[in-house]
Amino acid sequence: MTKYCKIPSPTIERLALYSRPLEALLGSAPPVISSERLAELCGVSPAQVRKDLAYFGEFGVRGVGYDVRALLQEIKKILATDRDWTLCIVGMGNLGSALVENENFRRRGYIFVAAFDADPEKVGKTLPCGLVIEPANRIRELVRERRIQIGVITTPPYEAQRVADLLKDAKVKAILNFAPTQVRIPDCYLVENVDFTVKLENLAYHLGRLP
Amino acid sequence: MTKYCKIPSPTIERLALYSRPLEALLGSAPPVISSERLAELCGVSPAQVRKDLAYFGEFGVRGVGYDVRALLQEIKKILATDRDWTLCIVGMGNLGSALVENENFRRRGYIFVAAFDADPEKVGKTLPCGLVIEPANRIRELVRERRIQIGVITTPPYEAQRVADLLKDAKVKAILNFAPTQVRIPDCYLVENVDFTVKLENLAYHLGRLP
DNA sequence: CAGGCCATGTGCATTATTTCACAAAATCAT
DNA sequence: ATGATTTTGTGAAATAATGCACATGGCCTG
Predict the structure, then answer these.
(1) A210 touches strand C (CB under 7 A)
(2) How far is CA B1 from CA B10, B50, B56, B71, B188, in A?
(3) Helix (H, G, I), strand (E, B), or coil: what is residue A153?
(4) Using N-to-C axis directions, what is the helix angle for A9-25 and B157-169, rounded to 10°?
(5) What φ, ψ does residue B129 adopt, rounded to 5°?
(6) Which positions of chain C lie under 7 Å from any protein Cβ?
(7) CA–CA distance, B114 with B133 (Å, rounded to integer)
(8) What count of other Cβ atoms lies within 10 Å of the Cβ of residue B201?
(9) pLDDT digits (tens, 9 = 90+) for A118-132
(10) pTM for this structure?
């Protein structure tokens, strides 16, 4: 029974997770997969897989499993990744430069259409992907012109909040922040903070009490 | 009352979060901070901050707050980030190259001491940080020699699992995987998967049902 | 076409995490 | 000192997420 009620947010994260092995399995042998197998590939429990999917409909066939292609299609529809999204990136240091070129983004339909930096040295340079680095004061203008939906922040931490405000004013619909500062924007604006030093500290915590 | 029992894993993640603004506040005016203010800076609830800290001891003074410097010290001790950790990185594409140079790692005591790649074109090149790219078949040798504790994976997804196995065999103590595949290693080995396309898909999900 | 088989879908129990609300303790002003 | 004020530390309540266990319903064999 499909529930249009509240979806647990871990469920959303896992849907994205499930799509990875499904993509890989697309060409290969059995066109169906069981919740048990998919769970194993993703490191979760089979019941979890079934429950997550059940929030959105009945995609499987009892006694058989899930059709790989159809399931992937459904997940993409749910996550709204069955379409392209336009992104811009602010802060063209090492990380920013790496992300614009990153194939994993493009392949999944996340297309960078503008790159910004405050450094006059960098402005005007052409990136390998073809984009020209623009000055930060053109953010508002280009977000409108190029219909940019998501802003990505890869500046140093002390600039992140200011850039986030700029992006909000420019009316991007969501922000993905890689700077190790929590950027806060009121009004239930969509912001995801990705701080990978946090993940390292997680490892350090566990390592610190093992030996 | 300190509880040596099970610590919720979200608590660990948040401790790392708390340390960010504390670092920034180190020099500035009031030497103490309230749970309310810290919570605001990190985007969590004040009760959450207090409970998280209370798992590890009584670090605050009632009616006053927490001493910024002392609290940061405590958190670092808890997370075992009061010392340096040695890392290696495998896969010197755009992302890998960006991460070795990343200042946020070094500043927090995560020191890259080796870089590997399978591509003979890249092997032997010297990176801006001074490291020379080594061939993947030297992983075992160098992990031992340079006492590498944590392995970072930035290869394409289809290589990630194989590299993870190599790192495990080489006896690194933990793995941080940036490839968009869940790498699985049995025996409760320490692995963190950081997939930022997952974060984007999270945003896409919410964007897809807003307008 | 009947019966066995198998993996899904799901209500319910369990466990995990967060929030609430207030007593306890420290500071400060009088 | 004493009382007012402030903010911590913490049980207990509420909420959220996960795991269990089994009925359900398609598929396949004979």
Answers:
(1) no
(2) 20, 12, 8, 17, 30
(3) strand
(4) 100
(5) -75, -5
(6) 5-11, 16-21, 24-27
(7) 7
(8) 28
(9) 999 999 999 999 999
(10) 0.94
